[in-house]
Design goal:
By secondary structure, the chain is α/β, with parallel strands linked by helices. It is 39% helix and 20% strand. The chain is built from 13 helices and 18 strands. Strands 1, 2, 3, 4, 5, 15, 16, 17 and 18 form a nine-stranded mixed sheet that branches. Strands 9-10-11-12-13-14 form a six-stranded parallel sheet. α2 packs parallel to α3, α10 crosses α11 and α11 crosses α12. The termini are far apart. The protein binds zinc ion. Zinc ion (ZN) binds next to loops.
Length: 429
Amino acid sequence: MTLYLKNATYIDWKPLEFHSTHLAVSPGIDGGIRLLDALPPESERSDNDSVFECNQRLVTKSFACGHHHIYSALARGMPAPAKTPQNFPEILEYIWWCVDKALDMEMIEASALVSALYCVKNGVTFVIDHHASPFAIEGSLDTIAGAFDRVGVSHLLCYEISDRDGEGPREKGLQETDNYLKSGRQGHVGLHASFTVSDNLLKKAVALAQKHTTGIHVHVAEDQADQEACLNNHNQRVLERYRDAGVLDLSKSILAHCIHLSKKEKELLRRSEVWIVQNVESNQNNNVGLANYKELGGHVMLGTDGMHSDMLRSAKAAFFAGQAIEGIDLAGIYKRFRNVHLYIRANGFCGDGDNNLVILDYNSPTEINAENFLSHFTYGLESSHVHSVVSCGKLVVKNKKVLTVEEDEILAFSRAMGNKLWKKMQKAS
Ligand SMILES: [Zn+2]
């Protein structure tokens, strides 16, 4: 069942070499690709093989998101909260914790389907998600996994466990995580953030991550309030607390944001194997500040924090915001954009093999080549150029049409679920 990409301009994403070639793409999880001078004659191809004409379009590795929240997918356009939030803790309390508490399993499925749909349309074939639905926890990760699988997005999921809604949701969160990871699925042990996690829960979460040989996925110092709560309640800073709990010893751990860190905490990160995710548009939206990620070592990747599913947009936003604070250059932002693949590979997760590809209809007004690719990447390439997408060797988007699911049906379903969610939230407020 080989997929042949005929007449491609293949860009090898690491050395950024350009090849005018044909590609043989193997099917399945972690399948590979071969560069061919000529397609095998039809007599040597199997009946299941297919040929896709690229017409010299750019073909390169597809994209991946280091930190997403499918739970926020139905929030677009919802009515304003009853009280206007004045700071980050109030944004959580008046907006996001109202959204996630109202989610039921049907809404979660719609959120996951529509997020996955936008991901593939934007060339994103792998998502690391951090999910919350305190009153619909049991089975939520399987529901998300099923939706992602249907659309053709590989994933690393977790449930963001916390103490904010009491013992019931906390224990269910731990149970859901254990059940999901026990079932053989890959994922993390998710925690919301230091200020909503007790010492008892932190201990249990690290033990669960060790049991399943995975890491903790948690928000870190997104706002100064996280540090203040940690100093007040635990007499130490957030990363000191996580160091003592063993979070920083787990190489699969993902720390989202890491904005308000002391010199000592930055040093802890530079010495650790854990990974950090930058989500600059979300930080600007919440007005929580910007960080100089160059000070945190090389383990920095990019996410969307649920704002959208467009990683090319995230890369541009990080590049422009980074000019003022860290002077990041074109090579630096491209590396950060691609670091997620290194995280996935180094930690033995699957679903991001070489047979994940994006075909770009980038009819540039100026020449594009290996020497100036990074400039085109930052100033030219956009998700609107995504023409077709191959996920695990299978064509999932062809000429901008999603092949795996009916786009209109999913959008109609998500609109219905959005209305249901907004009504439920208004009743609750
Ligand atoms: Zn987040």
